[in-house]
Design a protein that fits this description.
alpha/beta; 13 helices; 40% helix; 15% strand; elongated
Amino acid sequence: MSGSEPGAGPRHVPVLPAEVVDALAVAPGQVVVDATVGGGSHARLLAERIGASGRLVGLDQDAAMLDLARPRVEGFPVTLVQANFDRLRDVLNELGIEKVDAVLADLGVCSDQLDDPERGLSFSHPGPLDMRLDPMQGEPASALLKRLNERDLADLIFQYGEERFSRRIARKIVEVRKRSPLQTTEELADLVRSCVRRPKGQRHPLDPATRTFQALRIAVNDELGALDRLLAALPGCVKPGGRAAIISFHSLEDRRVKQAFRERSIWEALTRKPIQAGEDEVRNNPRARSAKLRAAVRKEME
């Protein structure tokens, strides 16, 4: 189920739009990939710049996102494909494309997905504990919480959520599921909040449930594994002189991107430090606060 009302366009606001355009420096006639097309906002910006003589390939593992993006890129030379970005090489092969001029990957979850209660991605709205970005693939978060033992749950929450109360949270999950399995976002969020105690009067921008929800979403969708596979495939997909830009939203992602673009035999980094949203953008789009953009140029092959 889409996060938009019937007939409505996507609600998602693209992060760092001008910075993405500058980093990729796309030109008319080029072949470009938006590996995470979402609602199509970045794709539209890039398609406008490559013009009728160019081509944009847009990937998303969620068919509902492609349906949202389609009207936004109508009239442009855009090919939309339902696929995770870790299948980039396979998709290009299927389309008869050897290498491209630019690749963009925005690793954030689309607002339309976050705001859809049926997805179970957010504790802002009561919904089933699903969290799958492709609802037709893999197991939902509720099954993961039911299957894993206490130690594995604690490790998952600590490693993927960097949550220091992970063992307390895992212990509580196991205790509660003996009586009744966790089935809703509301149940899980309340459980986590009961485990994360902060000193009275201490203000914190993050809801106590944030890190646990992040950890489960990453695990359910194998997000870090998919990112590792994308980073490994990129050098073989981008032309010498071509560019790659990746927007990450937490340190686990950003570390991987930073390390990959540091490979000097393959990439020339364009961003020594990640580019972040300015005050105006964050004010208008609070979800841009944690966005970090890194970009690099594919070096000539020796």
